[in-house]
Amino acid sequence: QNGSGNQIAAYTWHLSIVDGGFPRGVANIGNVMPIAVNTNTVWDEYDLTVGEWTIGDAKGAIDLGIEAGIPVTGDFNGDGISEVAVYRNGHWFVDLNGNGRWDEEDLWAELGAEGDLPVVGDWDGDGKDDIGVYGLQWQSDLLANAEEPGLPDPQNLYRGVLKNVPPRVGQSSGTRALQQSRGGEVREDVVDHVLRYGHGPDAPVVGDWNGDGISTVGVFRNGVWKLDTDGDGRISEADELVEFGKPGDVPVTGDFNGDGIDDIGVYRQGTWILDSDGDRHETAVDEVFHQGGPNDIPVTGDFDGDGIDEIATYRVKKSA
Predict the structure, then answer these.
(1) Rounded to whole angstroms, what are the CA distances from 220 to 86, 122, 156, 169, 189?
(2) Which end of the chain is more exposed for a tag (fewer CB within 10 A), N or C?
(3) Which portions of the chain are predicted below pLDDT 70?
(4) Backbone phi, then psi, for 288, in 5-degree steps?
(5) Which helix (H) or strand (E) element contains residue 243?
(6) Bridge partner residues of 268 (DSSP)
(7) What is d(CA 181, CA 72) in angstroms, rounded to the nearest whole number?
(8) For the chain, how big is the Rg over CA atoms in Å?
(9) Is 36 helix (H, G, I), strand (E, B) or coil?
(10) Pairwise CA distance, residues 296 & 219, whole Å
(11) Residues 94 and 69 sit within 8 Å (Cβ to Cβ)
């Protein structure tokens, strides 16, 4: 409750390990849990060619996008190069083969609902990025979060129990489904971590804050960052509190110097300020770039495979 006695809505994270479409491995495809989803309709229902991505000086090479969609990036297939994806109202369209457009070899997933915000990170340290959402808590989240051991980060010693197991029956609610390629089996046997970290007005952020290869969560509000550096999914004294940016900024994260640890930064209506020296303080040595405008959405990713994340912007193409 807040100071006026009004109930404050609880927000949670759902981090689903999809591992390129095979969360139990290719050999375990027999454990698919079939569900009633007409994916032929999903595959054809939307116009997914309305995106306009600008990566460095290159504009228009990638057109994957959807009206009212939110862009994200990640190394979803483990090849060391970031692929693009878009999210809208619980539906994920991931360019798994990295050719810059939606086709039959890509990955569709369902996770989240209208109003949820998408996040991407490597939740299990296997070198492939996974998906997640941050939004209003689901019906069974209190039970799931109470028994959640957190991510398998080496610094997360919470309870000392296994940290990559699926929720038990009765601990989860909501829909989780994925299909690797148009002709692939639809499955819902993902490992799902349920965390409660942050509050409604916070912007969710994700990064490998300590260089161990496992992404953990954080939140940003009005220039203040709170980073779950030990990966236990709980706000504690072990977390890092950082001031970088100001109200109105959009937070961005990525490995901007190639040291294996994700850095923080902000996007300010076309101006990028990146903590390229990794000290998590805004100083004169930080890199400043100008790309994009007030209506663009900032994204970052390693688009050339050199181990350093680059900046990019996304917008929906203007109608002819």
Answers:
(1) 22, 20, 22, 33, 31
(2) C
(3) 1-8, 24-41, 58-60, 158-161, 166-173, 319-320
(4) -125, 130
(5) strand 240-243
(6) 271
(7) 19
(8) 19
(9) coil
(10) 21
(11) no
Please return the burial class of 60, using the count of CB atoms within 10 Å of its CB with bins 0-12, 13-18 and 19+.
exposed
CB 242 within 8 A of CB 280: yes
The two three-digit tokens of residue 241, written as one number: 């509190």
C-alpha–C-alpha distance, residues 17 and 168, integer Å: 16
Residue 81 is classified by DSSP as S
**Per-residue pLDDT tens over the stretch 4-33:** 445 567 999 999 999 998 886 665 554 455
CA distance 68 to 71: 10
For residue range 80-115, list pLDDT tens digits in order.
Answer: 999 999 999 999 999 999 999 999 999 999 999 999
CA distance 197 to 186: 30
274 contacts 257 by C-beta, under 8 angstroms: no
By residue count, the chain amounts to: 320
**Secondary structure of 247-312 as H, E, C letters:** CCCEEEEECCCCCCCCEEEEEECCEEEECCCCCCCCCCCCEEEECCCCCCEEEEECCCCCCCCEEE
Residue 44 has a CB neighbour count (10 Å cut-off) of 10
Domain ranges across the chain: 11-24+40-316
